[in-house]
Each structure stands twice: as structure tokens, then as C-alpha cells.
Amino acid sequence: MRHFGHISPTAREGLFFREPRAFTAESPARMLSVALGATLYSPATRPSLADDVLKQAARGVVSMVLCLEDSIDDAEVTDAEANLIRQFAALAARAAESGPAGRSPGDATGTADAADADIPLLFIRVREPAQITDLVRRLGDSVRMLSGFVLPKFTEERGRHFLEALAEAEAACGRRLFAMPVLESPELLHLETRGDILQGIARSVDKYRDRVLALRLGVTDFCSAYGLRRAPDMTAYDVHIVASVIADVVNVLGRADGTGFTITGPVWEYFRRQERMFKPQLRRSPFLEGSAEELRTALIEHDLDGLLREIELDRANGLLGKTCIHPSHVAPVHALSVVSHEEFTDAQDILSPERGGGGVLRSAYTNKMNEVKPHRAWAERTLQRAEVFGVAREDVGFVDLLAAGLTN
Fold this sequence. Notes:
TIM Barrel; 2 domains; C-C_Bond_Lyase-like; metal-binding
């Protein structure tokens, strides 16, 4: 797998100063946590799920969650589990046909084989801990297509049972399985319990640090606790009670001192045109050349201008990647995850060995101050993102990347 791997090598060469690196499901956890990108959710009840996974992979999706929880009715769980077993078997058979069976470890650089290129990182969102061990047992050999589990409504007490079940399932199948806890419980939202809940979550995930790939934010559940729903003209950061929780989660669990985790951005709920109360948020200036104005119009008509703004705010607030419930959201997330040439140049200058003693330097673009010690953590994270999303050429902007990502 690689980001923008669904476009031609010639097109990638024209877009990237440094192309995104390939990776597999067996790549280091540090790389995979950054590489998740737009994680597309799909109900586990879909009868054509295996075909859907392959179709989305061909459109640039590299991570998916197959959901047994909120996206399906309580009465559908048993049938959905059986469907997952069938669909994973179909995916395993398809991978075996297209290359070496299963997902191979690849080399030290994370080179993907032919089978890996067809299958995104796949996670199952379960309801209860017992489902983890049961599903791994029932999957049999096709468990090799599974990267891990999404753990809903995660708290210290509830999370402990999930993580213990994950460890048990991993030992039983002999494969590395990751956890992605979802932080969405009302206790985390409520001011009087937030601090204790966050500290408990921190203790829980720290104990299983090697298996916690990323933490996901359940902003829809946060809004539900107060009967709120953000409009397509607004981002999660405009809902102050939600923004305050995001800030506290990043404060405790997203630190850059080696104790933090990758925290992914909240879901964007809208994917078709709604009546607007406010003017579009998408500026015209990046879209002035060629047919880019048509792309701007299309984004506005599909309420994706608000999504673009929220992605930018996610990154500014310490989040990386995003939960997505519609394929049209994938390309914007990935386009805005690419490191600009200016960001890359600044990060390299800051991390230059001769700057080990600190100091201040003018950026190569002569438009800002780069202070070596305070900006070091930012630079390290930027180069991690550059590794998997690539570095755009100096004259390439997000409009070009977005248009390329929408080609399929």
C-alpha cells in the first residue's frame, strides 16, 4: 500500500518532491499510526463487503473499519458477524490469487507485495470484549487479513476487558493485532468526571502501548450527550463543549514527549447538499487557475468546504487522520495530509545536525522564524507525516493533490 498509489507513477512524479513510501500491515506501528489517513467506516452487514473493500482500495483508501456496533441494528449483530467471516474468507482468497498468500512482512523499508496492494488495513469495530476472541477463532486462516479491532466507549474499566481479550486473541492466532480505542463516553464529556476518566484511560493504554495504534474521538456521541448536532457550516471546533474535550484529550494523551499517542480527527457527517445558512468557507484564491473553480463549486455543493476547514483545524489542534463515513471524504483528508515543500524545508532545517545546540534561523522561504528547540517536536512529526504522505513539489498545492486523488 501507499498513499496516492491509485494514481499513475507519472502523475505521482509530477506532484511529489518526495513520493509517499509504501507500507504493509506488518510495517512498524509508528508508521502505521501516521499512515491511517482517512479511515473509512462500513457496516458489517453489507452483502458485497469484500468487493466494496477492494473498490475503495482502488480509489485510495488504505484503512477501513467494518462496524458491528452503532452502524447496525441490535438485531443484526449475529448475521453481521457471519457475514464478516464470509467476507474475510473472500478477501483472503482474492489476495492469494493476486500474489503471495496473505500479508508478508516486507523488507525493512515496508515494501508492499502484490497481495498487500489490494487490501487496506482492516479493523473490526466490536460491541463487547468476547466478540474479539470469538471472531478471531471463527476467522481461521483469514485472520491474516485483519489488522485489529476498534474498541467503543473506552474507559479504564471497560477498556481493560477489551485489551485483555485482544491479548488473548493475539496469542491464539499468532498475529499482531492492534487496538484503536474510541473515546466517546459521557463521563469523558462531563466536567466533574473528565479528569479522572482521562487519567484512567492513560493508565490503561499505556499498559498496552505496543498494541494501541491510535485513539479515535467519538464526537457524535459527545454531541448526543447534550442533544447537539453541528451543522455543515460548522466544524467540531465551533461547538465549544466538544472543542474543550478535544483539547483535554490532546493535553493528556497526545503529548510529544514520547508518552503520547496518535489521536485521529472526528467524523464529518455530511455528504450531500443542504440548505446553507452561512456563506461558503472555501476561499477562491487557491482555485483560480484552469478548471479548479469547477472543483471548488463541486466541493461546496457537496458540503465539503466545511470538511476541509475541519481537517485543517484537526491538524492545528494535534490530530492526525480522520474517521470517514463516506468515500467522498477520503481524497480531501489525504490531500491535506501531504506535507508542503515549505513545511518540509522548515522541518529539515530545524532538525539539521549542525543546529543541535538550538538557536533561531530565518526560514528558507524567508517568511517566518524557525526556533530550533521549541519547533523540534513539530519538525519530527512533520517528517513522520512526510514519510507516508509524501512531500509536494514546490509549485503543487492541495488543489492539485485533491484533483489527483479524485481521478478514480
